[in-house]
Design brief:
heterotetramer, A: 222 residues, mainly alpha, 2 domains, two-stranded parallel sheet, two-stranded parallel ribbon, 42% helix, B: 220 residues, Cyclin A, domain 1, SH3 type barrels, 5-stranded antiparallel β-sheet, metal-binding (chains A, D), iron (chains A, D), transition metal ion binding (chains A, D)
């Protein structure tokens, strides 16, 4: 069912007046801005891309998804053992219970840190990352040093992130080589008995759900 | 493809370098590339695996010296021209000079939220049973396909243990070259650090990868 | 080091591209770099293995996008500054501002012909007998040293056959970090294409590498 | 035995007047020329490098060594079976018999092509090459495509060089991973019975001694 594309001679966005997407005025554009603007103009003018979809996509992933979603899941798991069990057994529908899911989280796997085993997530081949749970990945997660080293020297990588684990703690590295997406369930910090779910969620850092960090201690927030 | 993307175990890149404030995007153009790649990925002319293949087909030196979204941009430009959706001249000039080609779908603004909230599952039912069972020892095959594959070099030829059987999923090696989804059983296979990296490996670590059935063979 | 230099089996570089006329040097500066690197290699402050290590220590993306003599130049600059022979400021400006450091030797013009005609043999007598014999099946060890090594990744963990025992030679992994020549027996080990690359390998080919004794282990 | 370096305040080549090494006048220098000139100035002024040695090194490897040396050895092997046998059994002293040897050829190995086996030489890790026998290597030999592909798809590489071998011919690839240096002894072309050693040497191409080519046929020279 082929879509009939717009006629380039008869559309809403003539080439000479590219619609303004808040990417600056022409006089300030870098070569990359110009290159992308040219591509965008072509794709829009030829009718392959709806500018409204473009804006919606960018807005969704710039502002709507983020590690607050994962933090809610972690906090819930800390206070609700049945939720925790479901999360570890079948993460995707369990995350849906709290409204988290979608593109990049279709097949979620949650791996739990314990005193004996620490989990670390990487994608050596590209940048697979659980978008609906953690948002878009930071640059370091997508960069060669992390992708190269996480699988061969995870302890050295963790040390650079300030995470030093006992020698007796096994390190479990998860290389996201298919469409499964991983989230780490970190251990609940001590001294958090009095915190409610929202208070706990505030301790859950993005890095603690990748495995390159640990949750904050309540004292550290004071 | 044993390209610049297959980074596991490489050395010499220096430390991991988190950025202050960690901006999601570093320039206005990065946002546009992100959105364009996502939108065109739903055009029906290609799929996510094909986009990954296009990115890793950049010459290794270029891949390793391009920023993340520059890789996306270059791959998208190649896809657009390779599929006849625009000419090189058009994307260089920004001026349309050739007729549009048909696409299967144009994602509409109102579709973004429901579609992306639902996601794009890649599990596919399969009539044949899984060949391997949890706990079984398997060897990652030695393969070096010139096209897309998701079996990283660092596990090829190494022996591991099946940790999970996940069901059957779209096979990227086939899907990336638009040769069909050809679903296969997908496993998680755990390899010890010593098996992957030798006796000098950091103690007590293991690496798990997700491996399609054809990537694996039973121990002889 | 699993760096940009370890190229065997990589894909995505495109065709081999011989040049018309094949100039030995492409610019005046390339000749100078060649001569400087050769001369400084005899200064006694480092050796050929250390120079190779300095070249492959360039970040992989930089290694793969630098021309051959640009790699030599960058490595030589690093060696000169790392050994305290000159400061970064000096080599950036061309103006001497710090005292010279001692070197073991300054190669003189008249020495070049006799020295280079004689060469610099790297065989070294060894009292212990060779561990492996011609015809023996051996496995290339899985090692991933962060420093210099001459065992390429593509043979690690693979099984081959000892074709020749060459005598004992300077061990590059030690010599490169100026930790002594530590000579070892050197072998030629032949691997079948199928062993290295899997069932889809080109038929009827084999690859032989020169492997030091500590790179090899007997088949269990 | 430390060498006493020159005093930078008291030497023959003040910085302001770098000696001319025929690398062009200052006004034409590229950034790389300037960068190398600065390094050379420092190394010479500090007394680490003798300019005469630099010139001798460059001249030696630019003009004196080259594939004519290897070609002489091949031609000799074609006409002198005893020389051929010695060359294959112990190449280094055998090449010395015809005055070929030195830096980069201290430990030579000669591998012989036969109807059953074709040899191909590469250095995947850097650019090892038998300098006294073949001269400095061409750029393609040192470049990533050749170094990457020669070991994994030698037939495809050979085809690009115009060498198509029968399927029954085994390909033997030699990766120069230590200080041994390889030279291929190609097969003598047919129709060369009347040629003398010099005439035969003229058929021996550089590529035929790397394995990426075959010797010329006498007819091809006419």
């Amino acid at each position: 069912m082929a879509h009939e594309p717009h006629d380039p001679q008869n559309h809403d966005h003539p080439h000479d007046h590219p619609h303004d997407h808040a990417h600056g005025s022409g006089s300030e554009l870098s070569p990359m801005d110009l290159r992308v603007r040219a591509l965008e103009s072509i794709l829009v003018e030829k009718g392959y891309v709806d500018p409204a979809a473009l804006d919606a996509l960018i807005e969704t992933y710039e502002t709507k998804v983020g590690p607050h979603n994962g933090a809610r899941a972690v906090a819930r798991a800390w206070v609700d053992p049945a939720f925790r069990d479901r999360l570890l057994a079948d993460a995707t529908p369990t995350l849906r219970e709290i409204g988290v899911g979608g593109r990049g989280g279709e097949h979620m796997v949650v791996v739990e840190n314990t005193p004996d085993a620490h989990n670390l997530v990487v994608c050596t081949l590209c940048s697979c990352y659980p978008w609906p749970v953690l948002g878009l990945p930071p640059v370091w997660y997508k960069s060669p040093p992390y992708r190269a080293r996480a699988v061969i020297e995870p302890r050295a990588v963790l040390a650079e992130f300030g995470v030093t684990l006992p020698g007796s703690t096994r390190i479990r590295v998860w290389d996201s080589t298919a469409e499964l997406r991983y989230m780490v369930l970190p251990m609940r910090p001590s001294g958090t008995e009095d915190l409610d779910e929202a208070g706990l969620a505030a301790l859950v850092t993005r890095d603690s759900m990748i495995g390159t960090g640990l949750p904050r201690h309540p004292g550290a927030r004071a | 493809m044993n390209g610049g993307q297959d980074l596991g175990g490489m050395q010499g890149f220096g430390p991991v370098a988190p950025e202050p404030n960690e901006p999601r995007f570093h320039a206005a153009w990065e946002k546009r590339v992100f959105g364009l790649a996502m939108a065109m990925g739903l055009s029906g002319r290609w799929n996510l695996d094909a986009s990954r293949a296009a990115r890793e087909a950049l010459p290794p030196g270029e891949y390793l010296t391009s920023s993340y979204y520059a890789i996306w941009l270059k791959a998208l430009e190649r896809q657009v021209t390779a599929h006849g959706l625009a000419t090189r001249e058009e994307i260089a000039s920004g001026t349309v000079s050739a007729p549009a080609a048909p696409v299967t779908r144009v994602l509409k603004g109102a579709e973004v939220e429901p579609l992306f909230d639902r996601g794009f599952p890649s599990d596919r039912p399969l009539d044949v049973p899984a060949r391997f069972a949890v706990g079984e020892r398997v060897r990652a095959r030695i393969i070096n396909p010139p096209g897309h594959t998701r079996l990283p070099r660092y596990v090829r030829g190494r022996t591991g243990t099946v940790e999970s059987v996940h069901g059957s999923f779209v096979f990227p090696d086939s899907n990336a070259c638009l040769a069909g989804e050809a679903p296969q059983w997908l496993y998680t296979v755990r390899f010890s650090g010593a098996e992957l990296w030798g006796e000098a490996a950091e103690p007590g670590h293991a690496v798990s990868v997700n491996a399609f059935e054809s990537y694996l063979e039973p121990l002889a």
